Structures
1.
Amino acid sequence: MWAAVIVNTSKKEALKFLPKLICKLDELEIVPVMFESVRNFYYSEKVRYISNSECLITESCDVVITVGGDGTIIHMASHCAEADKPLLGINFGRVGFVATMEPDEISELSKLKDGNYFCEERMMLRISVIGNSFYEEFYAINDAVISRGSLSRMMDLSVYANSQHICDYRADGLIFSTPTGSTAYSLSAGGPVISPDMSCILLTPICPHSLFSRSVLFRDSDVINVRARGTNGFDTEAFLTIDGQKHIHLDDNTEVTIEKCKKSLKLISIKPQNFYTVLNNKLNERG
């Protein structure tokens, strides 16, 4: 069994934990595979280093283990979904809604070798950006956010589902999230919490210019289209942000399509977890 180990090298505690993890994997006869660039931070003869990042996930592993926070998992989610590789996240983040293992539970990794673990299917979004002369496609495990740029002007946003007009918003932006992403930016914007085993698309407005604008829940089969326009004759200067990591400038002629991705992230849990218990504990930690 081979395991791709993805470590967030900006986290000192994650790097300190790495030798312990590698020794445990070696003890279990699981071959750890890492990016060549990690050699500058950590080297071990027990590790296979690979320079081709695509081969690391698609060809060189049976499972992916991330050592970092939820951001590390989010960064790898689309790659794992595309390659149909299950992912186990070891939490070194501040909250860790998506990571399912804490560092002090490393002894539980024996269950990974034995196949004695649970695998959750997490829905992802497929986001298409269509302009006058370009087309781009992205995938999100948490959310796609359309928001204004550095200026403080609001935007007018028109939302359609299955080619039918749904509503118009005047707001700072809109958040389209998966059930997994309902506990991220959407929650901070006043959106509801959705169990991650559900399949739906959540729309939450950001600072809407209305006392009655609330979140909207769409079916997972709905195809949603959004256009953003500037107010009072100004351009939108809007941006599309994917999982807080990719940023795309939108102009008035750009249309964004949000729909359920055909592929999903397989998230490993070594032990059964009750989502609402985890949610309560994490929110208490967040304060």
Note: Residues 100 and 167 are 37 Å apart (CA to CA).
2.
Amino acid sequence: MKKIQISKNAIKEYTIITIGSAVMSLGIAMLVDVFIVPGGASGLSMAFYYIFDGALPIGLLKWIINIPLFIWGLIVLGNQFGWRTFYGFTTTSIFLDMFRGALPGLSFIRIQDTEFIKELATNDFIFLILVASMLMGVGLGLIFKFKGTTGGSDIPAAIFQKKYGIMPGKAIIYIDFFIIIMACFIFHFKGLQLPSSIITLILYALLSLFVTGYIIDTIIAGFDYARQALIITDKTNEVVDAICKELSRGATAIKARGIYRNIDKEIILTVVSIKEIPRLNDIVKKTDPDAFMITNNIHEVMGEGFKRRI
């Protein structure tokens, strides 16, 4: 029974990693022809795509760039960057070329030629960047949440952490920033007809990087959907009884000592849904008007009364 469960979990994880790869690749495909560099291996492949005048598909270039990084990661870090990394950057490369019509038999797709993208590129450039960045963030967030990775700057960042003690998040920011600057200057010196000045393109790319990172964090941590309440009251039993009866929620009493009066007391800890907060406020005020209550946002709750997120 245990082996079957593990197999089902693996299928679920790889399925969502695949969906995440598709969503992420769609976002990247929307930015290629407007010269907004997403950073990482995707941004580097975009630079080479224009250096070679589009002779090689951008997804294939992304895959080629990731292969030596993947081997480097295996040598230095062992299996930390294993099959999920290979699967992640391979599927994103395939989807990227599929959406741009570079795969044999699928040339009719070409997301960059749709009226929607053309209209946004002409009339609402910033909104196009925001939509694409959100798609990349959602895609990467799903991939990371289910233990996948797309290679790229993740691999050197992990190596720098091991060898030099540089935090991965900081290393990724440095690497992506360097790639964005480099790619934008390549576009400039190639004499390409850019939609904006090189400085503006760099700022747009950094905006995209920020939005993508924010969405990734939101997908991984989750949207706030519950509240933790800490209640300090002299009527602990009455408040707990009311919470259990009126909200059907459990509560935990934590032993503490009040510094001001130097007395031992208990703090009530309970977790409720967002919509139950007004009722909890009413319960506490009605039971003990002098009670002190603190509420905090909760991103993830596992246990009875709360549904686990995907």
Note: The chain has a mean pLDDT of 87.
3.
Amino acid sequence: MLICAVAAASCSEEIDVKLKDADRTYLVLEGFLTDLAFQPQSFTLTESKGYFDKEEVPPVCGAVVSVDDGSGPVYYRETSPGVYTAPFGFHGKPGNSYHLSIDATVAGEERHYEADATMPQPGFKVEAIDYAYTGIMEADSIWTISMWGEDNPGDGFYHASVAVNGNSYPYDLSLILDDKYFAGQKITAFPVAVLEQTAHNQEVYGPCCKFLEKGDIITFMALTLPKGCFEFFFSFANNMTSSAIPFFSSQPANCPTNLTGGDAMGWFAACPVSMASVIVDDPMRPDYKRK
């Protein structure tokens, strides 16, 4: 902020900055292949848009999406605009390899994309979670979610997310972390997430940001990530914020991807999941009941 103030004070000439539109359109892939047989496996495909564009992100419709586990392709059906879902019961298994194929029309051109992934062994076991009411700040209600569990030996990378009554937090409200603070250790009451209820969040993200009530179900999910996918999300997080690490360093011009065949963003990852849930009995409970 000081640098900006000095620059403004030393220059009185009006500067007209012209920003050009993005010179290409990317396919954007969101979603994972997990080992949860009871959970629908799905991907979301959209087109990228310019940073200053105010229109909604355009979905990629009419694509042909399949995942092959070596025994033949399993085709995903478009269940809503840009959302492709596998037949119920299809899921990944740790140790198996998978090949993703996408034929889609992006920016008016027919394109073909591919990616490969191997599902690692689970790196983390979530045994239980609990919640505590933190307080109210500027009329916003905040809860912290803590976890009990165990991290396996060796390097581990995780995508941690929370769902309220089955409504999952989106990528930009999820947590990407490695295990450097608890490598190979038992974990007790480790704070892993914050639930923040605001009118703005409810408007933008929907019921996942609702004010907690008695009977609500909070679910925490930890997905074990391959290192490349962790690096993608870390780069993605840097691009989503106004500052980079280290401070004042340049942000990555583009996030890494394992999709080949054209301009694309996202990462095809096959991830085992460990999860636990808790039922809310007192939304205003100030401390954890689980010991």
Note: The first strand starts at residue 27 and ends at 30.
4.
Amino acid sequence: MTEPSRDIVRSVIKGCGSALPHRVMTNADMSKIVDTSDEWIVERTGIRARHIAGEGETTRSLGALAAKRALEHAGIAASAVDLIIVATATPDQTFPATATLIQADLGITKGAAFDVQAVCSGFVYALTVADAMIKAGQAQCVLVIGSETFSRILDWTDRGTCVLFGDGAGAIVLAAETHPDSRLSPGVLVSRIHSDGRYHDKLYVDGGPSTTQTVGHLRMEGREVFKHAVGNIAAVMEEAMLAAGVGPAEVDWFVPHQANRRILEGTAKKLGIPEDRIVMTLDRHGNTSAASIPLAFDAAVKDGRIAKGDLVLFEAMGGGFTWGAVLARF
């Protein structure tokens, strides 16, 4: 006789929201700045446009707007939030944490707020930390935000990097709920994160308070990053699915970090994932680093593709190298 499933605390996604800068920069606009073309960019990356932050639009302001929209979508008051985690590599200031600034903007005076820095993997890392805090009883309602203004650290003379990135923010609201210990129950099922600092110089910023006392610019060895990306991402996705006891065919939607269409297609092919189950916003957002996953998730929820009860797999890889995956039932 099979024993009934015990009840456990789950981190359940209650709502999502996003925010994008007003200015849209197309590939045609980009070709006026550097020696490139729409055809060149689309063929190599899949990107057609990106949003660029203007005056008054910052990581803080975009993150706060995405958070407000996520709370509204969830039907939860800001006063219920007892933890805010912001994933960003482009904070408003070296300190304090952008999360505390957003906390103030939302009128929240209780709980805690801090930033997580894992570059493009930041949202997956932040979601993993939030889930752990909820399961440990340290938080009941968490805002997980990915917000970036990468345009402010780009070298606009380097066509190998400046054409890739954009600005934006996305947020989700996680709440502690008790459900049967089953992969059919809502909430985060599995999270896996990794890093390997030996490759830090393949994707980095050439400045910082302790070294140059400047912000610096993004630098990347594109071929090296690509070479590691497909293998690392596919491996951690398989690791997460194995831990949850599910196969690729059981996952309803794959919501990847939006880095490069070739990376997404290569990973999908490696795991046998049909392209029509991959959420892509890369063409209109570019690579928004830690904001890309929540931006893509919000787009797919709001247009009706992702529905309650769907099994969703998030994955990312970023500078460090860092990489990870989270499997959740929406």
Note: The first strand starts at residue 7 and ends at 19.
